[in-house]
Amino acid sequence: MIPYYIFEPTLHLFSVIPIQLWGVMVALGFLAGLFVARKETARKGLNANVMYDLFVYIFVGGLLGARIWFVLFYWPHDTERTVYEILAFWNGGMAFFGGFLGALFSGYLFTQSRQLSFWAYADAVVPGLVIGHAIGRVGCYLTGLHLGVQTTVPWAFYVLNGEMAGQLRHPVVVYEILYLLLIFVVLMKMRPRLAYAGMMSAGYGVLYGTARFLNDFLREEATDARYWGLTATQYGLLVVVIIGLVYLLRKRA
After folding, report:
1. Whole-angstrom distance, CA of residue 31 vs CA of residue 41
2. What is the pTM of this model?
3. N or C: which end of the chain has fewer CB within 10 A?
């Protein structure tokens, strides 16, 4: 077993300025994703300067999508769903899959408004998305978000503090960080073999969708009786995987 300490989600800089630890890691992930995406855009011969405007759209769309998905499908049962509470995203409550959908939609709107190839720019963004996502998940790891179900596997986290203190839990966030890094390596290896626009994006959808769908079974909040034992996110992931496979197979044919 591995001792696991949960940090306070809010730190205070100079004992005065509140800093959200999770938010800091998400911001670092966003900046890292922008850096990688811009480099990838330049390598592909696309307009790298467009990335700054595109990422503004992605940021806003991702933020709205992440909050909306959380409010619709993961709202705590013991919290009243008031207008203020819904809007108070700074108190926590985001869902990556909703953010992914929001970013996808806003990115599509941006490319269409600039008359750019959606798939070409999506392929350039995907590696940055993966590495940024992995960095953002470090924030989840530090603050004890998404601990897995109880287990006796040798690499289980032994929780030292918090509500689950003394319990052995699957380190599902670590699993996600590891498979995101592996997907990043696979995507980088794919670059010389890309035969058409959208191939990398579809490959990411299949790889991440499959890994996340399976990993979610180990999360504490995984099963939901409202959705026949799955979560809304898992159904969404199944759709992403199917669309990705159909796109790849049709292009191959």
Report:
1. 15
2. 0.90
3. C
